[in-house]
Amino acid sequence: MFVMGGTLYAIRSEKFKFQILWNVVSALSDLFRARTYLTHFPVQSYLEADVLSKESTWNILEYARRAGARGVTAEELSKTLDLPASVVYSTLKELRRLGFVFIHPREKGKSKDRKKRYVCDKSTWGKYGVDNDFLSAMTFAGITDHVVEALRPSLVGMLSKSFDEFKAKKELKAFLPQASPDNICSKCGRSHEAMEFIYAIVLRAIDKFITESDEFRVFLVERGYSK
Ligand SMILES: [Zn+2]
């Protein structure tokens, strides 16, 4: 865990732990429905960071995340991740309380499938990254809406172009989110995988612009924020 710009991020930087998880993930990759594009979960409190700092919790959340829109049962989590059922249930309860997972609504006509399925909720990505007071101030002043309006045409154009490039190039194609009805979230009606794909593209572009571009350096110099 480390603190950056007033926001807490829970990360697993220990390389070997990641390697172990990655091996598990790779071995099971056929089972996974959703690719992930962002590597950490933004959190808003020490409580959230504390919950996510447990390796079992992290692995459960990662697994649920990769299970996609239909989610995963507690039994499957317990079996695949080799965790006692009691740990899985208490962790899922905590993750639900914090809004990281929700229960998939029962599907009609599927009487066999009575077990609860837990879905990783990623519609909270955007909200988590920004300080609440700052967010309220921006929203109240209409700043967010103005920025969105100004960016809308170029964002839409840029994203269609990026999608086309990913589709056209063999080495990029594997990174595309799947367009399948199975992958659409029962709660928000969108593919979390596709949303995360777009977040990753936009975040990287904005980061590059802010940290590396001459235009932005000049912008800062003119306002006394750089020399
Ligand atoms: Zn959703």
Quantity of strands, as a count = 6
Order of helices and strands: EEHEHHEHHEEHHHHHH
In terms of per-residue confidence, which ranges show pLDDT below 50 for 5 or more consecutive residues? 1-14
**Into how many domains do the coordinates divide?**
2
Distance between the termini: 32 Å
> What's the CATH superfamily of the largest domain, by name?
Winged helix-like DNA-binding domain superfamily/Winged helix DNA-binding domain
Q: Please give the CATH architecture of the largest domain.
A: Orthogonal Bundle
* Associated small molecules: zinc ion
CATH topology of the largest domain: Arc Repressor Mutant, subunit A
Largest sheet: 3 strands, antiparallel
> Outline, from the CA principal axes?
globular
Strand order of the largest sheet: 1-2-3
Indicate the radius of gyration in whole angstroms.
20 Å
CATH class term of the largest domain:
Mainly Alpha
Q: Helix proportion of residues, in percent?
A: 55-70%
- How big a fraction of the residues is strand? 5-15%
Look at the helices and sheets and give the structural class. Answer: mainly alpha
Tally of contiguous helical segments: 11
Mean pLDDT: 82
